[in-house]
Each structure stands twice: as C-alpha cells, then as structure tokens.
Amino acid sequence: MSKLSKSVFFIFVLIFISVFAKSVFAVGLIASPNRIIDFEPGIEKTFYFEVTSSRYDVNVSIYGYLSEYAAISKKLIKSKDTDRTFTVTVKLPEKEEGLKPGHHKIWVSAKEILGTAESGGNVGTSSNVIVYILVNILNENKYVEVELSAPNVNLNEPVDFAVNVKSFGKEDISKINAAIDVYSPDNEKIATVYTEEKPLKSNTEETLHAQLSTTGYPSGTYMAIAKLNYDGKTKQANNTFKIGELNIKIINYTKEFEKDKINKFDVEIESDWGNKIENVYGKIKINNKSIQTPNIDLGSWEKKTITAYWDTNNIEIGSYDAEMTVYYEDKTTVETGMVNVIEKKEAFVENPSVISLSTTTILILIIILLIIIDIVWIIKKGKSKEKQKTGKK
Amino acid sequence: MDEISNKTLAILLIGAIVISLGGTLISLNRLARIRIPGITGFAETDTATLDVTISDTTQVNWTTSTIGWGSGTVVYQKRCELNSYATPDAANCTDFTPNTDGLVLENTGNKNVSLNISTSKDAAGFIGGTAPGYQWNASDLEPGSCIESAGFDAATWYSGSGSTTYKEVCSNFQAGEGIDSMNFDVRVIIADDAVGTKSDTITATATGI
User: Fold this and answer.
1) What is the chain A residue with the closest CA to B187?
2) Which residues, in sequence order, are bridge partners of residue B73?
3) Do A176 and A272 lie in a common domain?
4) Is B199 exposed, middle or buried (0-12, 13-18, 19+ CB in 10 A)?
5) Domain containing A306 — which CATH number?
C-alpha cells in the first residue's frame, strides 16, 4: 500500500471510529422480567442477571429482608470481564413461622467502584443500579388489597369505575362488593354507586364495576371513595377523576426578556378537555405589537408550551403589559400580565452538537469513502500513465 | 467536439455509484417501514407459536459525563464562581475554560426507575479554602422525563453533601423515548486561598420500580 493510500485508509478508519464509538458512562443490569416468588415451603428459584459494559469495576450484592435466604454467585465484575453474568438463588425455608406476611423485596445492586478509573474533568460521574426480586408471603387470614380506577371524562359522559381487589390471604372470601361515594370539587357528597358482588379465592384477583352518570355535573376534579366489603370486613380506596370541558388554561409564561435580542416568549397551556384539540395557537399583544405562535395540537388534558418570538431591539428596559390570547376551536382564552425587559446577559458559548449515527451519516461516510478511493485511483492512474509515457520515450 | 477524458468518465462513474447507493439505502430504509400483505396460496388457518422473552434492562447513562474548567486563578481577594451554564466572570476568575452545557443523564434501559443523586465530597472536601460552595440542580431535558420525588424541586440548588447522603430526585425517571433525559447543572464557588487540582464524582443511583 502506498503512503497516500495508507493515510487515506487511516483517515477513513478515524472517521468511522469517531462516528461509531459511543462512550458508556453507565452501569446497567439486564434481568429476566418475572422476578417474583410466591412463598411455598422450601421453594428454590434461580434468577439470572448480566451487568452491562462499564468503565469501572462493578460490585454486585444483595440485601434486604429475606436476603439471608438468597445466594449470589459473584461479588465483583471487572470492567474488562467478558463474562458479565451472575445468578441469585433464593431458597426459602421449609417452615413459614417467623416470616412476616407481605410483599418483600430482595434488592440486587450493581455499583461502580470509584477509583478503578478516572471519572474525568473537575466533576465526573458514575452510576449505580438496583433491581429487586419480589417474594410474596400470604397473610394467615382473609386479606385484600384494593385499588380504585376512575377515568377522566368529558361533560355529561359516564364514568366507569373499576375496583381491583387482590386476595393476599390464605383463606377464600365468599363475597366482595363495593359502594363508591362521589364528592364534588367543593367536597360535597353528590352520589353513591354500587358494584356487583363476586367471590374471591385465596391469592387471586377480581375487578368490580360501577357506572356513574355525570349528566348535569359541572367540570372540575371529583373525588371517588370505594368502600369494599369482604365477608363482613371493610377496606377503602380512593381516586380523583376530572370532568372536562372544552377549555385551555394559561398556566405560565415568560416574564423576563433581554434587551436588544430576539427572545423566546413561552406560554405554557393546559387542556381541560378529554379529546385532542387541533390548531391551537397564541397571539401576544405587547408594546403595541402583536406576535404569534405556530399552530399545535393539544392532546387530552395535555400541557404544552407554545412559543412566539419578541424582538427587543430598541425597546427600553422596564415593565410592559402583555395580553396573551390562545385560540382553539371557536373559543379563546385571554390573560394579561406584566413582563420585564432587562439588560442583556453575557453570551454563552455554543458547543458543537454531537454526531449521531443515522442513515444520513452512513450515507455521508460512504460518499466520503468513495470520493477518497476515487482521488487515490485518479492519482495512481495519472502516475502510471506518466510512467508509461516516460517508458515509451 | 472533444472526446470525454478518462478522468471525467471516472468522476461521472463515481457520482453515479454514490447516487445509486444513496438511493438504494434511502429506498431500503423506507421499504422497511412499509408492511405489504403477502399474497399466498397457503392455508390461512395454519398457526404458529412464537415465544419471546424480553429482558428487563435497568440502566442510566451519563451521555454528557464530565465538566472541566481547566486551570485558572481566582483574582486576589475575590470569589470565583464556576458553573456549567455561563462563562466565568472575568472580574473574579482568570483563565478558566467556560462550560455552558451541564451533565446529561439518560434512562437507557426499558424500565422506569426512581433516581437518587449523591456527590462523593462536600464543598470543603471538593474545593477547600475559605467558605467554598458546591451545588447542583436537576431538571428535565426532555419535558416529562422526571416525576419529582416529594421534597425535590427542579428550581432549587442542592449542596454537594458527601457520599453518605443522597437526594431523592425522581420517584419515576421514565424510560420512554423522548421523555428519558435530564440535565444536571453544577456550580462551585472558590475563594482566592483554595489551590490544587480539584475533582469530585456525582453518582446517579437508579432503582427499578
């Protein structure tokens, strides 16, 4: 290979490495997804883990209640190790006596050991990751865990409540049912709805349903409290839900602007509506001028920021009234406020952006490579022709 | 008319190769996104079973992982603030390298996590000298990335407090694309009697939820 070809090859390799190389300043744990054990006397399960590549050596350990019944296969994974897997084997005792009922977590931790490499700079970084193995130990008697789901709706739409009941006791329950009390935004009880009745076996779950008609209810945030009855015992769960109307609120806006600069004027808005609102935009009247934001779509109950740009060249330092109007469907929301123009701050240095490996990047690299090959080929061809000519002479 | 030279032909040839390769790549890229129902005479009622287990990956990655202000001096009887978002004030600090980008932490796993932050040293251990300062703050780089823990506020600066204590930042640092990165700014205050090379490490601890 000629000197030129070698340099071309070297440049190309450098370009490729710089684009493909991605620094890893992290430690991660890859694990099988179902890391749950339901207690049975003497049950034994092994869980597999893998530590992702890292700059530092990594300590792996287990801790937490019941970790005495677990064994870890390795305690250290070096940064250069190729086998980065380890196992945690949990072997629960033959007798349940002395174990607390509940959902217990055996924590599995991977921590970078600082000092095995330089973190770099004045302020460097490291990371640790902790995951868990869940051990469920049932209660002796009838025991339930309750969750209430209450979806947001629009004006006059019904609310479908769902009461999820999980049995976490050793005894079956012959019947479960729930009454759901609904409270207005002013905290007044306005309705009670009832679910169906079902039996619930040990260590299983059921969902109870009830529907609330919201006809005539004003928009706002409501509270629902479910009272579950299970074989004479009770348990509660609560949740809030919104009844929405076609309205957009202005939550916040930029209040400080630098003089002699094109400033971003952000207006944060939030939808009170349970459907998408299309073509939302804002106009801001300020200092006898009007500036406008681009159109956006706002998802149900979504918060977003719309941005206009205000040129403060030749505008004096001081306070100015701003009238912000948000336009949507056939409606508008208007808010007025005060904004300040202040002295221009020091300019920040812009750093070059990071190159990411996209199809375009690959394409550019290929083109660069082809051009380089082309140049080399043309030069070589030219030289060999010259040689031929010189030879003929 | 003059004959086309070999050089021109070669350039034209390479141009054609580049255009066709580029076109092919773009086309392949686009074709990969199109789902075309297959036309086949094979029995429609035949079934197959596919089993796939997708592992949990719990991982946070510092995609911007260091801040370096280089070396410099603090003006006599002044206090110099170095931070990750603005140029040091020349009236108090000389020759330090400006940093205007903070640290960036990304949830590169496929699991939401809770997030704690700790520093290895406190201000005295890191900077030294008279009444040093060492603070950090955290905020969403991509809006919606962090559901803040009770007691944490993105607008507040927290003091570097040494490895024995940590601050709960997010009860849920999300793994979803477009909502999985956070920005960390750091600022230190150095008195004119602090000397030597200074360094510290900020540790992010991600716990699967």
Assistant:
1) A123
2) B94
3) no
4) middle
5) 2.60.40.10
pLDDT at B24: 76
Q: Do the domain assignments include residue A203?
A: yes
Q: Which fold has domain B60-208?
A: Immunoglobulin-like (2.60.40)
Tell me which residue has tokens 């390769």. B21
Instruction: Return the top range by mean pLDDT from A352-366, B2-16, B20-34.
Output: B2-16
Which amino acid is present at A218?
P
Clarify whether residues A64 and A166 are in a common domain: no
- The minimum CA-CA distance between B39 and chain A, rounded to whole Å, is 30
- Which pLDDT band holds residue B203 (cuts at 50, 70, 90)? very high
Looking at per-residue pLDDT, the higher value among B124 and B23 belongs to B124
Specify the pLDDT at position A354.
40
Residue A393 placed within a domain: no
Domain span including residue A54: 25-137
Neighbours of A13 (CB within 10 A): 10
Tell me whether B71 touches chain A (CB under 8 Å). Answer: no
Neighbours of B39 (CB within 10 A): 5
Q: Which helix (H) or strand (E) holds A245?
A: none
Of A137, A170, A192, the one marking the end of a domain is A137
Task: Look up tokens 């300040």; give the residue.
Answer: A340
Q: Domain for residue A312, yes or no?
A: yes
- Note the ipTM here: 0.71
Summarize pLDDT for A369-378 with one digit per residue, the tens. 877 887 887 7
**Tell me, what amino acid is at A204?**
T
Average pLDDT, chain A: 85
**Domain harbouring A219, CATH code:** 2.60.40.3880
Closest by Cβ to A125, choosing from B25, B84, B202:
B202
A240 and A287 assigned to the same domain: no
Q: What is the pLDDT of residues B82-115, one digit of tens each?
A: 999 888 988 999 999 998 889 999 999 999 999 9
The verdict on A239 and A292 lying in the same domain is no
C-beta atoms of B204 and A371 within 8 A: no
Give the number of domains in chain A. Answer: 3
Nearest to A125 by CA among B195, B205, B97, B149: B205
Q: Domain map of chain B by residue range?
A: 60-208
Residue range A159-182: mean pLDDT, rounded? 95
CA closest to A374 among chain B residues: B14
Contacts of A299 in chain B (CB under 8 A): none
Single out the residue in A117, A137, A157 at which a domain terminates: A137
Confidence bin at B76 (pLDDT 50/70/90): very high
pLDDT tens-place string over residues A212-252:
999 999 989 999 999 999 999 999 999 999 999 889 999 99
Q: Which residues pair with B182 in a beta bridge?
A: B105, B140
- From A349, which residue of chain B is nearest by alpha-carbon distance? B100
Over residues A345-355, the pLDDT tens digits come to: 654 333 333 44
Mean predicted confidence (pLDDT) in A195-224: 94
How far apart (Å, rounded) are the C-alpha atoms in residues B196 and B168? 32
Instruction: Choose, out of A84, A123, A366, the residue to mutate when testing the contact with B (most B CBs < 10 Å).
Output: A123
Distance (Å, rounded) from C-alpha A291 to C-alpha A390? Answer: 73
Decide: residue A268, CB within 10 A, 0-12 exposed, 13-18 middle, 19+ buried: middle
| CB proximity under 8 Å: B 76-95 to A | 82, 84-87
In whole angstroms, give the CA distance from residue B187 to residue A122: 11
